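DM from R.C. (forwarded with permission)

"hey, sorry to bug you on a friday — could you get me a structure for this? deadline for the figure draft is monday and I only need the backbone to look sensible"
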Amino acid sequence: MKFQADEEIRLDNYLSKKMDESRSQISKIIKSNNVLVNGKVVKAGYNLKIGDIIDVSYEKGDDSITPEQLDLDIVYEDEDVIVVNKANGVVVHPAPGNYHGTLVNGLLYHTKLSDVNGDARPGIVHRIDADTTGLLMIAKNNKAHEILAKELASKKTFRKYVALVWGNIKNDSGTIDAPIGRSLKDRKKMAVTSGGKVAVTHFKVLKRFNNATLVELKLETGRTHQIRVHMDYIGYPVVNDPVYGGRKLFDDSGQCLHAKTLGFVHPKTKKYMEFDSELPECFLNILKQFE
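My reply, with the result:
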């Protein structure tokens, strides 16, 4: 397995998350000299730097991903990159308890993908939640993946979302600068916490309703559940979010959050490319109830 570090944390913590193994198991693998960072043997406590290349010689068993013929909304494709408009309810990559029907299963049926992030997450440069819809960039080879990952880490990738949130936001625009980490009260959730990682979200009001606001959001960082956590933190949780905000749900179609616009510099041509997408039907159905 090969990974490219996308955050600065301990090696054992990083591999534990990426490989879905306990930290004790990861430590055994590292101590047996089956892990190299930039071609060198290191200790479990080694502090990774963004861009470090991690090679792991470890066979977990037959956990290969089965290519599956799925209905993919491919917005753009060439020999290096695919841009996909992900549908609601589709998990991005396989994980314990969910090895079929993911975006990666469908992509592997369609084409070959990079393996920089290991066998479980081929091609995946960045992710969005299963119940968030919208645009994702996928790498078809390792060179493209490494370049796109560095662009993402250096905050050069342009990502614009649209969300419907509860409440009437008074300011026409604003910035939420609040660190995000694992919730101390519920380890399955993320939260704004003093020990979290830097997280910055910019928002602009598009339209106001009686008890909700349609907003445009731009990400400066890409933390897990960032928009959902930040909007809940300032008192305007995303409508229909089953996890954050504690408000009534309209249905089980997921939160009203859509990754609408995606822009990046092509890894080979070096030209800036930008893609846009329409709000999905599940989002529009709820939006109509406020209009």
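R.C.: lifesaver. The chain has three domains: 2-56, 74-154, 159-258+285-290.
me: no worries. Residues 74-154 form a domain with the Pseudouridine synthase fold (CATH 3.30.2350.10).
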